[in-house]
Every structure is written in structure tokens, then in C-alpha cells.
């Protein structure tokens, strides 16, 4: 009897893993550090809790994904840190092994954020930028990547 339950549970586990993979598809992954580095040209917050970023990658390439976006500021008594985006996501018309026909470089994107730093705050922004991604299908799309820092006054 226990063997039947084990087989049923194992089968359900396998099918659920297949479903998760097909549902969530692929994700960007860093393969190497490439030169020259990309840049964050500007960033700003809006009062409706959005962070706007203008990203630029080396010539003849496009920003294809971003991830690990967080920002810090001093609120008068302590340093505050907020996470805007954890795992990398595709941007600029790129998804898995498909590239959109209208990719741009530089590229401006926006993210919903949990909190906006007060006006006149000195903000430091941290972003992982991915570009020059492989055109291969699979769960991990390998891209050049670099972790960039950008400081500005809100």
C-alpha cells in the first residue's frame, strides 16, 4: 500500500515540476562579465511609487534584462534599504530566446517600488544589468552581466 502512495506522490511531483517549468519558462542568467560595462544614465522616483531607470549597454547591443534592484538612503536616523526587484526579468522586448523587433539602446524602464525616499534624499541605487544574451532555448538564457551603482539626489 505504501508503495502505491509513493508512486502516486512521485508522479504528482514530477508533473507539478514540469508544469512550473512550462508556466514560468526561462530566466536570464549571468554567463560572464563583458567589457565595456553598461551604465545607468539616470534614475528617479515618482510619488506614485515608481522607479524609472535609463539603461545603456555597449554599442551594437541592447539592455535585455535587469535584476537585483535595490536602493538605500538615510532617513535622518538610520540607513533605509528597499528591494525593488529580486530575480532577473527580461525587458526591452526580450523573452527567452525571442527578441522583440523594437529593442532600444539606451532603454528606459520603470518598476513599482515599496517606498519612495523623501525629497532631497541622497539615494544609492544598485542594479544588475544583462545584455548580449544567447539565442538559445532552455531555462537559463546566458547573458553578459554587470552590477552597477548609481547615486543621485531624489
TrEMBL record:
Residues 1-25 form the signal peptide. It comes from the Eukaryota. Keywords: Signal. This is MD-2-related lipid-recognition domain-containing protein. It comes from Diversispora epigaea.
Amino acid at each position: 500500500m505504501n508503495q502505491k502512495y509513493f508512486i502516486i506522490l512521485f508522479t504528482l511531483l514530477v508533473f507539478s515540476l514540469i508544469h512550473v517549468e512550462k508556466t514560468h519558462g526561462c530566466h536570464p542568467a549571468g554567463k560572464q562579465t563583458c567589457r565595456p560595462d553598461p551604465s545607468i544614465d539616470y534614475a528617479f522616483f515618482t510619488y506614485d511609487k515608481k522607479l524609472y531607470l535609463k539603461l545603456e549597454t555597449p554599442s551594437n547591443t541592447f539592455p535585455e534584462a535587469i535584476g537585483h534592484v535595490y536602493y538605500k538612503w538615510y532617513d535622518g536616523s538610520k540607513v533605509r534599504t528597499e528591494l525593488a526587484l529580486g530575480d532577473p526579468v527580461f525587458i526591452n522586448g526580450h523573452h527567452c530566446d525571442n527578441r522583440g523587433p523594437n529593442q532600444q539602446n539606451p532603454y528606459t524602464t520603470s518598476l513599482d517600488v515599496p517606498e519612495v525616499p523623501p525629497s532631497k534624499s541622497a539615494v544609492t541605487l544598485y542594479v544588475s544589468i544583462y545584455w548580449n544574451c544567447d539565442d538559445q532555448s532552455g531555462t537559463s538564457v546566458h547573458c553578459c552581466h554587470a552590477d552597477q551603482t548609481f547615486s543621485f539626489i531624489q
